[in-house]
Each structure stands twice: as C-alpha cells, then as structure tokens.
Amino acid sequence: MSRALAPVAALALAGPLLLVVAPTRPPRPPVAALLGVALGIAVGASLFVALAGALPRPVFTRAAGVVALVGMSEEAIWRGFALARIAPVAGAVSAVVVTSAAFASTHVPLLGGRGASVHVVTGGTFGLLFLASGSLLACAVAHATYNLAAVAGRGSPACAAIALRSATKSYGGHRALGPLDLTIAPGELVALLGPNGAGKTTLVSLCAGLRRPTAGSVRVFGSDPREWRARRRIGTTPQQMDFPPTLRGREILDLARLHAPDPLPFDELVWRFGLADVIRPQNGALSGGERRRLALALAFATRPDLVLLDEPTTGLDVESRRGAWDAIRSFGGTVLFTTHHLEEAHALAGRVVVLHRGAVVADGHIESEEELLRLTR
What we know:
Largest sheet: 6 strands, mixed
CATH topology of the largest domain: Rossmann fold
Structural class: alpha/beta
Low-confidence stretches: 1-5
CATH superfamily of the largest domain: P-loop containing nucleotide triphosphate hydrolases
Distance between the termini: 60 Å
Strand order of the largest sheet: 5-6-7-3-8-9
CATH architecture of the largest domain: 3-Layer(aba) Sandwich
Oligomer: single chain
Number of domains: 2
C-alpha cells in the first residue's frame, strides 16, 4: 500500500473498528434496514442538489468509491459513536451541534474555512437524520450518496469546463460584468473579444477564482474555482506577470512544476515555448518578450485541464507569437483567452465570444476571417 493511501485506509477502518470495540446505543430504535437505505439515498442526493445546484451524475469512479467508504466510516465515528454518547448526557440538539462542529473542524487543514463550512451543513443534516431515524445505516448511505455525487460530478467528462449562470461582478456602484450566462465545453478553444472595459479580464478573473461573483455562480468542471481542488486544474497567464529579478528561468519553471503531481516534462516545456535562451539568465536580465514567453509557459507547466490567458502574446515579436500559437493549439485541453487581434482569434479559436459593457453580444463558431469580421461588428 502506498503512503498516500495509508491514511485513507486507516480512516475507512477506524469507524467500524470503533463501533466493535466500544458499541453505543442509538438515540431511538432504528427504522427498518430497507427504509434506512431509502432515507439515506434520498437525503444524500437532496443535500447534494441543494448545495451544488445540480443533479447528481450517475458516474462511478474509483475515487468516488474511496470517498464513499470514508464517508461511511466517518458516520460511524461522528454519529454512531460521538453523537450517540453525547446525546444522553447533553441532549440531542447539543449533541448535533458539538459533533457537527467537530466534524467540520477536522476538515479545516485540508479544505480551509470555506470547505469546512459546507461540512457544518452536511454534518448537521446527517446528525438530524440519525436522531430522526435511529439508523446509522441511513446516515452512512446518505454520506456515501453525497460523496459519490460530489466526486463523480467533478470527474464527469460531461461536466462543462466553464459554466457561468447569471454571473454578475460589480465594483462599488459600477457593474463590470453581467448578468452573464456562458458555457464552455471541455476541449474548446475560445477567444474572448471586446473593447477595453468590456469585462474580459473580469470574466477571466472569476473563472480563475481570483475574484468572486457579486451575484450568480461560476463553476469550473462543476466546482467553485476558489476551491483548491478546482484551482489545481487551472493554468493561467494574467496580463501583468513578473518574477523576482534574481531567479533564473529554470528556477521559475521548476518552482511551478513542483506544485503539480504530473507536470509537463522540463525539456518539452522548453522546446514547446522556445525557452532555450531563457532558462539560464536571471529574470532581471530578460527582455519583456522573453518574460512573456516564460509567463505563458507557466500556464501549461502543471499540465492543467483548463488554461486561462489574458492577452497572452502581448509584447511578443511575430516569430515568438506564431510559436506561442503552435504551443497553445497543441495543448489539447480547454483554453479561454482574451485578445484584441482578430488574426490571433482566427488562428487559435474555433469559437469567439464578444463582450460589450459586460454582456455577451455575439457568440459563435468561425470558419473564416470573413465570419469573424461579421461576428465582431
């Protein structure tokens, strides 16, 4: 067994073992097993719909199976043991509050405060289900159902790469974007066009998780892009990007690659983006175009599923720009990029989205420069 799987296996075994070593009595006689299973499925699926705003996807993966087992074990610990022992002493409501808070706090190191707050809701719901049904089986099935839906939804190939629903972003009293609906499928190369101030950079920032919508929702592969799991799947090059002047190009690339479980090989990255003359000098000695090529390469260094590029070829000469186009085309994942150059949009994108004053005024697939000109008028 690998070291990465050892903690997961230990947690999956801890709950059942605890119930065997120190069995506890449920707060009320449990409902029948079949009814408990039905209640668990109904509560788990309904909770997922309420929190995710989407229907569960019937997709089973190995990862989903693992988190389902872990979820069932967590129910044995927090409901079958902790809640059942606290309730007779402190009362049912206090037991639900204490165990839900403790359950959420165990997720803070991994998920942060936002992720833990979701676990307050799920833990409270499963605790109330245990009080109402007396069935640990119902809680275990509810937790497993919720986890299956959550993980399968994130990993489903049918899940949109980017989905904005009535997304709005305002700064003070000024509305910079929206309300906007936009869906980008996995594998699409999409150019985002529009005049200065149209909302292009704001849209990219929302998709990258750098800003939160004032209203509506933004999802990347079904998840909030501000969550760390979603952001691991994103590579980005903003309009302005620089690095400490004493770092060498090789060190900057390696620093980015170290944050990925399966990064693009160093030599391939250098070859694809023409960085042979960039990896040895310190950043302070590089030209603006060389820094831009390095910044562009960083968006792809972690082998992401989605790349967000804001004016990716600004400052590049003709040869470097065409080399960057070749690298972007060969990526194979989803790319959303902003540009002011119709030639660049036509060279890279199969679809063009035009923004004006924060709203989509044109959206279509293009086959020729004439179509692109017609779409952007």
